[in-house]
Amino acid sequence: MMDENGILFILSGPSGVGKGTVRKELFKRADDLAYSISMTTRERRAGEKDGVDYFYKTNEEFEQLIADNQLLEYAQFVNNYYGTPRKYVEDTLAAGKDVFLEIEVQGAMQVKENFPEGVFIFLFPPSLEELKTRITSRGTESQNAVLKRLKEARGEIEMMDAYDYVVVNDDVDHAVRKVQSIIQSEHCRRERIAKQYKRLLEDDEL
Ligand SMILES: Nc1nc2c(ncn2[C@@H]2O[C@H](COP(=O)(O)OP(=O)(O)O)[C@@H](O)[C@H]2O)c(=O)[nH]1
Ligand SMILES: Nc1ncnc2c1ncn2[C@@H]1O[C@H](COP(=O)(O)OP(=O)(O)O)[C@@H](O)[C@H]1O
């Protein structure tokens, strides 16, 4: 491989668009990608495991992680904290492995400030109507919360320009394939840049 460092991929998008669903399906198919398990203060749901789905923390523990600068980014989402462990991401990239983050949009913008070379993918709903159906059908939100999330989604969609790629999540299989092609393309692109760079260094006239 030409790249010494792995590539950081960030999948983000409005709540309910299908980020978790697409990420889980992607990881069933991809074996050379490391998923960064997030820290959260939200309660563990039935069937979730500490250290697999999330690292579950108390508010105090989470605020200590923030104070110690151990998070690459963090955000408050529906009254809970969510954040990405800095060390895991940096060490894994330095070891030459790609890292994949699945995070909400405020966090994604913080990552962009620290890691502008990351590859930012925005998952887009086929329509606002379909987004509403997905949020509602998940059944985890009250009617009020659904409306609040939809309102936020409008603002989030306006941030789309800050992303490198937009993937419409019409169908999970299609969306996962598109994310896989983005990963492949990025490797080809960086390999090309690395070759050009090497040629430049070998040029005697310089
Ligand atoms: N900023 C940030 N968001 C995260 C992180 N981990 C998960 N999220 C996002 O937090 C939101 C809520 O996640 P979760 O509580 O698992 O609920 P659900 O995905 O809505 O069922 C989702 O949009 C996730 O993408 C993180 O480390 N940082
Ligand atoms: N392509 C899709 N077509 C139909 N339903 C989907 C699709 N992707 C996700 N969903 C459904 O939409 C809901 C929200 O998905 P989820 O992955 O929890 O979203 P997010 O992580 O972005 O909040 C879930 O009920 C999920 O099964």
Automatic annotation (TrEMBL):
Pfam families: Guanylate_kin
EC number: 2.7.4.8
Keyword Lipoprotein: no
Organism of this sequence: Lentibacillus juripiscarius
InterPro entries from the UniProt entry: GK/Ca_channel_bsu, Guanylate_kin-like_dom, Guanylate_kinase, Guanylate_kinase_CS, P-loop_NTPase
PROSITE patterns in UniProt: GUANYLATE_KINASE_1 (PS00856), GUANYLATE_KINASE_2 (PS50052)
Catalytic activity: GMP + ATP = GDP + ADP
Domain of life according to the entry: Bacteria
Reported function: Essential for recycling GMP and indirectly, cGMP.
Keyword Glycoprotein: no
Annotated positions binding ATP: G13, P14, S15, G16, V17, G18, K19, G20
Name assigned to this protein: Guanylate kinase
Sample GO molecular function, one term: GMP kinase activity
Family: Belongs to the guanylate kinase family.
Alphabetically ordered keywords of this record: ATP-binding, Cytoplasm, Kinase, Nucleotide-binding, Transferase
Domain Guanylate kinase-like: 6-184
Location of this chain's protein in the cell: Cytoplasm
